[in-house]
Automatic annotation (TrEMBL):
Keywords: Cytoplasmic vesicle, Protein transport, Transport. It comes from the Eukaryota. This is Protein transport protein Sec24C. GO terms for biological process: COPII-coated vesicle cargo loading; intracellular protein transport. The keyword Metal-binding does not apply. GO terms for molecular function: SNARE binding; zinc ion binding. Residues 562-632 form the Gelsolin-like domain. Residues 97-341 form the Sec23/Sec24 trunk domain. Gene3D superfamilies: beta-sandwich domain of Sec23/24, Sec23/Sec24 helical domain, Severin, von Willebrand factor, type A domain, Zn-finger domain of Sec23/24. Belongs to the SEC23/SEC24 family. SEC24 subfamily. The lineage of its organism: Eukaryota, Metazoa, Chordata, Craniata, Vertebrata.
Amino acid sequence: FSLLLPQTLPYLVDHGESGPIRCNRCKAYMCPFMQFIEGGRRFQCCFCSCVTEVPPHYFQHLDHTGKRVDFYDRPELSLGSYEFLATVDYCKNNKFPSPPAFIFMIDVSYNAVKSGLVRLICEELKSLLDYLPREGNMEESAIRVGFVTYNKVLHFYNVKSSLAQPQMMVVSDVADMFVPLLDGFLVNVNESRTVIVSLLDQIPEMFADTRETETVFAPVIQAGLEALKAAECAGKLFIFHTSLPIAEAPGKLKNRDDKKLINTDKEKTLFQPQTSFYNNLAKDCVAQGCCVDLYLFPNQYLDVATLGVVTYQTGGSIYKYAYFQLETDQDRFLNDLRRDVQKEVGFDAVMRVRTSTGIRATDFFGAFYMSNTTDVEMAGLDCDKTITVEFKHDDKLSEDSGALLQCALLYTSCAGQRRLRIHNLSLNCCTQLADLYRNCETDTLINYLAKYAYRGVLSSPVKTVRDALINQCAQILACYRKNCASPSSAGQLILPECMKLLPVYLNCVLKSDVLQPGLEVTTDDRAYIRQLVTSMDVAETNVFFYPRLLPLTKADVDSDSLPAAIRNSEERLSKGDIYLLENGLNIFIWVGVNVQQGLIQNLFGVSSFGIGYLAFQSTLPVLENSFSKKVRSIIDMLQAQRSRYMKLIIVKQEDKLEMLFKHFLVEDKSLSGGASYVDFLCHMHKEIRQLLS
C-alpha cells in the first residue's frame, strides 16, 4: 500500500460528532462491500458477517437491487479510497492535535563548515521556508519551525518575532538533554521572518573559524523530541550530519567497520545497530509523533546501520552524499531537500489491515514501528514510503465471494486535522493452480522477496539468505512444472508466461550490494541500500534491481517518446553509440569510443574529453541543438518520476569509471562473483529438476 497516494486527493467524508460508521464486532469501516438488509435498517459486515444497526441519521432506503438509493452520493459506498474526518475519540489523550512543527538541526563541526555545507543549508532555508506544506486552500502553512546547531554541544535559538536579533542558548550537558527555552523556539515563519533570516545569515559567520571536529548525535534527536513534547505537538526533525558521533555523550559510537566479516557468520552484525540505545529512543519518538529525516555527508565510515535506526522506525527518510563536494553534489542535495520539505506529510499515524475470512495479514515490511502484531505505527508518513504486507491463506476461500482487504490509516494532517484514510480491495480467488500462475505478478513478488531477504540478513548469514531465495523460487517454478505444464522432456526448462522474468530479476536481487557486495562497496552503502529498498514500491524495486538502459543515439528528437529500452548486457552496447542507464539513484551516460565528434560536441559542448572533464560534470550543458534538448528532456522526465534526485555520472568506454557502470549491467557475470543470467538460468533449471526427482 502506498499510503499517501500522490495522484488525486481522496474525498473527505464528515459524519459529524458521531464519527464514521463501523462494524460492531471487528470495527471495520463502512465500505462498498457492506450488505444492507431489512430495508436498510441494518448492515451485514463483509469481513466478519456480524450484523450492525444503522444509526437513524445514516438510514436510507434501498432500491429494487438492494442497494441504497444514495449509493452514488456517498464516497464510502461507491469508491475504493476515501477519508473520514476523525472525532476526538481518535485523538491522543482525547484532545484534538496541534499543528505539527519542523525543526532544522545543523551540524556545525569543522567538516560541515569547511565543505561549504552550513552556508549552503542556511542560504537555501531562507527561501524554502515559504514552501512548507499547507492544507488545501489555506493562505499559509500551519507548520511552525525551530532551529538548532550542534557539534559536541547544542545551540538553541530564540527567534521570537518581537526580538531585534536572534538569541543563542547553549546546552553543554549533553548527558541530560533539555530545551532551554519554550517561548520563541517554535515560531510562525511569516511572523518571525526578519529574525529567522538574520539567524540564517549569522550561523555560517559564527562558526566560520571553528576547530571542533567531534559531534554528538543522540542528544540532537533527544532535543528535538523534548521540544515537540513541550509544545505538545507532532513534527519532523531535519538533521544534517557529517561524522561518526564519537564525542562523550549518550548514544556515542565507535568505529566497528570490518570488511573481514564479509561471508562469515558475523556478517549480520554489520547490519545491526551497535547499541540498543537508538531502538529505545525510536520508541519514544514514535510515541510523540516525532519523525526524523537524516541527511548524511560522510567522508568516512559513520555507521548508517546505527544512525538510521530512529529514522527508519519513525517513518523518516535517509539521504546520503558521500564525499560531498559543493560543485558536484549541490544540485542533488538541494533538489532532495526541497522535495522533502515541500511534500505532503502526515504525522502520528497508525495503520491496521482487516481481511475477510480465509486470509489474514501476518507480516509487514517498511519504515515503521510495531508494538503489537496488528498496528503499524509511523511517527511520520509521506508519498515516498510503501508498506508491503504479507497475507496468509488460513481458511476456506470461495470463488464466488473472493477475498476482501481494508487498510485503515489514522493520521494527523499537516494542518493538525485528525483523519482516517481508508483503502478497500476486492480480490478474485481460484481453485485451479493454472489460473493462479496465469495471474501472478512477478514484479510484486520480487519486491516482497527482496524485502524479505534484506530483513533476513539481520539475523542469518548472507549465504543462508541467498540459498533460501533460490530455493523459494525453485519451489514456485517446480510446482508449476509438476501441476500445470504439459508433459515434456526433463531437459526443457518450462516457465509460466507471467514468470518468464522471475529468474532474471531474482538473479539481480542475489547479486545486489546487500547480498553480494563488490570490493568498492562500503559497509555504510550496504546498510543505506538495505533501508532504502525496504520502503520502495514495486516500480522502484523494478528499476533498482534491473536498471533501465536507453540508446540515446536512437532517440527520435522530434517526438516526446523514450527510445525502446535494451537489455542490460555489455554485448548490447555498440562502440559508436551513447547510452543512458538509470536505476532510481544514479543516471549514467555511457559514451562509446567510436562516437562521432559531432555528437560529443552537441551533447557536452566540447570537441573531445580532456583529462578530468568527466569528473566534474554533474549536469549536462544547456546547448541549443535538437540532440542536447532531447537528452536533457529525457533526463528531466526520469528525474520527475523518481522520489530522489539521481546523480549524473558520465562514463567514457575504457575509462576507469567504466567498472562502476559495468556493475549495473546485471545480465553479465559480476566482479564480485555474481552469476550471469545464462549461468543462473542453468543453475535454476538444475534446482527445479532436483526438486522434481
